[in-house]
Amino acid sequence: MEASERNSTVDSIHQEAIQHGIYFLNPDDQELHGRTFKLQGQELLSFASCSYLGLEQHPQLVEGVIHAAKKYGTQFSATRGFVSAPPYGELEALMSELLGGYAIVCSSTSLGHQSALGVLATEKDAIVLDHQAHYSIQQAVQICRTSGCHVEIVKHGELERALEAIQRLASIRKTVWFCVDGVYSMYGDLVPIELLREALKIAPNVRLYVDDAHGMSWVGKHGRGSFLTRFGFNERVVLATSLNKAFAAGGGCLLFATDKERQYVRKTGGPLFFSGPLQPPMLGAAMASARLHLSQEIYQHQEILQERIRLANRLIREEGLPLLVENETPIFFLRLGLPRLGFKVARRMMDEGIYVTPSVYPTVPMRRGGIRLSLTAYHTNEDVEQVIKRLAVHIPTVLAEEGLTVDNLDDEFRHALPGKGRFAARARAPLQELIQRLIVEQESPETELVATGKRPLESAEHLTVEKYTSIWQVDKELWNSMLGTVGFISWDSLMMQEQVFTDAAEPENCWQFLYVLVRDRAGRVLAAAPFTVALCKDDMLMREEVSQKVEERRKEDPYFLSSKALLLGTLLSEGNHLYLDRSGPWRAALTRLLEVAREEYDKNRCSVMTMRDLPADDNEMDQELLHHGLVKVPMLDSHVLNITWWTEEEYLATLTKRKREHLRERIAQSKFYERRVHGVGVGETLSVEELEHLHSLYLNVAKKAMRLNVFHLPLQLLAAMHESPAWELVTLRLDPAHGGPAHGRPVAFYAGYKQDAHYGAFLCGVDYDYVYQHGAYRQMLFQIIRRAMELGTKTVHLGMTANLEKLRFGTVAQRTCVYMQARDHFSGALLREIAAEASLSSTHSPANKPANASPG
């Protein structure tokens, strides 16, 4: 997914949260006391604060702000590289004592990351990055990349694989930095300490860069935090932490083992030298907080919080709530799945006067969302009991409404955490039994159905689902009447595809087929679709320069960034593969169809679900599929030509002047080409050698076709098309007397699809020696149209890419889109890294490249 597409998805999800009234809130302007805030007059008990020790109202910190503001003013507006506000030196001395190293105070933790990593990781070094490390670290790593630092990311759930990358890089890079969080901000899990120790054992040039912002203050000597308490500190570690959150002041802090390294970062870290400082009022708060941390009082606050944490853990266990991981942190992540479930629970809790925050995409993977509950020392035992008690009502209710069980959650989150952390706190029997009872009650005819996105298995429409694993099992006439003329998926075409792509030896050519029909009580089909489980390239829809970078990696690993996907349609189809009767209860029918698709997705452990080639301007579909957790991604335009004429002269009359000139050139050129049609009942039978030649022409094009990057189709496919009544192979031979090859073999061909009044070309091949001077590609496009006219078809499908070339023939570009759902973020994160690398190494901006360039 490109950055613009991701932004659009995030905007849609956040808009849905705004509609639920749970994001971007502005509390009433009243005095705050830590536990609660008022929203439009309603008092809400809040579990959203990251001020874990509740120090923001502490008298010493408040007085520190007042004293510093009176003494130094509201700001000290000078670049730190020249002069700092007077308290800076004292604060850094306090933080050095508190943390046990050499500290630099930064105006924010994010700027601290940019300052430190930006100068410590250069073109001589490498970074191995946990893909769930905080976003601020990831942004800093991008800056390192621009200076030539080599970056590799590792999936959080497979963090142990970082050791392999570190081992490989340690021998070829000056320093290898392993970047992680001490406490992960969303799931609340702790970085595996033993894994870090193993990483440091690999080589002496391996170092750790740790963000412990969410571990600060609430644990350890002087409140120095979770990571330093568990791991310690030495010269191979650089620590970044926050002076916000539990520290309750402002800014961030970097910790180094030597003064030499501290001074190096201070002098060369751009944001430290040139950016504005932490302003005097918050410097005053930070100094007061540091002194408090260095006193015995800090342990009283820590113990109060730990008491609340122990209570919450015990109550969650007793209620059997679906906690992801149990530990000593004040962050509790209760698993739910799709964003809408988190929104529902949060909204219902809010209606009862309790504010909890849903953690959803993009901070966590789309289907691994939930409720993030954070405790502070402000909370009383009664507060903790209240929130757990109400969550124990609403979470099982929402799960039951969605037809989800604890086993479903366990399957979805099984690989969310690394190594030994990969053990979800399984819900006890009472929760499972409660969910089952609620599901049964909702399915009962006597029970009024709750208005939810997911209908019970037998809804008011009495829908039934039919599933088939071969098109042989589906009535041919029925199928073709619904989907025969769209997407190259007629009954005969799918039969041919099953013969080629079932039980193939190569992983990319071994597909599984699924056909789903949803009927109403009268037996009328309301929804129907073909699905395929197949291995796909994760960069299929990325920019060409990104796919080119990925293909370089595939020279060593052919299946790098390749994932098993559940596709609407097949990899040999194009078009709207979804039949949906909008005159009936189509949302319920679509939900049933997606349920079956989801079962197949889970059964085959697919990484991606893709509903592809749907109209881009269908707002109702946008809302419905986002509701099911599928995000919208623009697809390439698909070109269609509607034939409203009988002769080529009439065709010319429909075009603009420039397009008429272009077409007349193709017509004049056509006398030098011999077109032959080969198929069932037409033309000569092609020999094996001829099919091999056509396949070589196809590969010429496929190897260049990076804009829609797919695995190359096998030779067997052409042979099967040759024998299928749905397809024909059309070859073009250029007369040797007019520059054609002496051997007389085709210089271009295409595979044509025939069904009723529709004709289309799906794949093609050309000999590039005859493209630019002899126009073989353009002649092929013209011959597709001429052949369609001969067959009396009314609609010609010319497919995607090469927009300019196809528009010259008068086609209409139809905007389509893909709705996708990924099991986790990792492939997307890795592709973004590669995209950044491609942008840096490209000599031309994508905006300056010729759009849709194609052979002559």
Defining traits:
856 residues; Aspartate Aminotransferase, domain 1; Aspartate Aminotransferase, domain 2; Aminopeptidase; 4 domains; eight-stranded mixed sheet; seven-stranded mixed sheet
SSE blueprint:
Blueprint (H helix, E strand, L loop, with lengths): L2 H17 L16 E4 L2 E5 L12 H14 L14 H13 L2 E5 L2 H12 L5 E5 L4 H12 L3 E5 L7 H9 L5 E6 L11 H10 L3 E6 L14 H6 L5 E6 L9 E5 L2 H10 L1 H5 L5 H14 L3 H23 L11 E7 L1 H13 L2 E2 L1 E3 L9 E6 L6 H21 L4 H7 L16 H15 L20 E5 L7 H8 L7 H11 L10 E8 L5 E13 L6 H11 L7 E7 L10 E2 L5 H18 L4 E8 L3 H9 L3 E4 L3 E5 L5 H6 L3 H13 L3 E7 L8 H15 L12 H9 L3 E8 L13 E8 L2 E9 L9 H16 L3 E5 L3 H5 L4 E3 L1 E7 L3 H16 L15
Parallel strand pairs: 2-11, 4-5, 4-6, 6-7, 7-8, 17-19, 25-26
Antiparallel strand pairs: 1-2, 3-9, 8-9, 10-13, 12-13, 14-15, 15-16, 16-17, 16-18, 19-28, 20-28, 21-26, 21-27, 22-23, 23-24, 24-25
Helix pairs in contact: 2-11, 3-11, 4-5, 6-7, 12-14, 13-14, 14-16, 18-25, 19-28
Q: What number of domains? A: 4
Classified in CATH, the superfamily of the largest domain is: Type I PLP-dependent aspartate aminotransferase-like (Major domain)
CATH topology of the largest domain: Aspartate Aminotransferase, domain 2
CATH architecture assignment name of the largest domain? 3-Layer(aba) Sandwich
Give the amount of beta strand, in percent: 15-25%
How many angstroms does the end-to-end distance come to?
30 Å
Task: List unreliable stretches of 5+ residues.
Answer: 421-428, 444-460, 843-856
Helix count, DSSP H or I runs of 4 or more residues: 28
Let me know the average pLDDT: 89
CATH class of the largest domain: Alpha Beta
The shape is elongated
Computed structural class: alpha+beta
Number of strands: 28
Domain BioF2-like acetyltransferase: 676-802
Domain Aminotransferase class I/classII large: 44-391
Protein name: 2-amino-3-ketobutyrate coenzyme A ligase
GO molecular function, one term: ligase activity
